[in-house]
């Protein structure tokens, strides 16, 4: 009975600890191993980000549904965002990176494509929404099934930095031009900002992939611009409503 419980405990603990760190902490009782602390912190952050990603764009989706409008949200920006997410998801899946280092992108992809479809539907472009969804699912299959060579995925991943930045800048320009952030969800943007910032650390620890690290760094900087705009235009919107 005790051995069974110990086995279950070890299997559960290995979701967070590497085998080496598990032995360090629970067998040798060495709690001052720097590399193990960093690795464990990275794993915990990664799992936390994955759990957070289950809900990160739900506020945005609910805001769209509640207002039945996609006003202020650039479908081009959403598509760039979806492309960046899908490229990294496919690259990481094929490279067999630890799920804790990229699992959030699978949930982000689902939620982002829902946002795109809703924006199109509320623009009375139902057929475009259907074509958009079908095309996206087909692209996912091609990129993740092994059909696409890994060198092509790597090239696409290197292109992710400009894709991420351009996508965010398009949305930032739309906000500036409109003088407000429209249906952009503040909760979603703050979660994306903090999530991408945490991913810089987890990517360094779990993948060591320079391109991935630079991509998340660029994404964090770009997200910070949108967060700034939300805060800046927040008072503008309040004043307009007060008037």
Task: Describe what you observe in this structure.
The protein has one domain. The C terminus is likely disordered. The chain is mainly alpha-helical and 243 residues long. It is 79% helix and 0% strand. Helix 4 runs parallel beside helix 6 and helix 5 packs across helix 8. Keywords: Membrane, Repeat, Transmembrane, Transmembrane helix, Transport.
Strand and helix order: HHHHHHHHHHH
Number of domains: 1
Low-confidence stretches: 238-243
Distance between the amino and carboxyl termini:
70 Å
Largest sheet: none
Helix-strand layout with pairing:
Blueprint: H1 2-13, H2 19-26, H3 34-53, H4 58-67, H5 75-95, H6 103-122, H7 126-144, H8 150-158, H9 160-178, H10 186-206, H11 210-242
Helix pairs in contact: 3-6, 3-10, 4-6, 5-6, 5-8, 5-9, 6-7, 9-11, 10-11
Brief overview:
This protein is 79% helix and 0% strand.
Output the keywords.
243 residues, mainly alpha, 0% strand
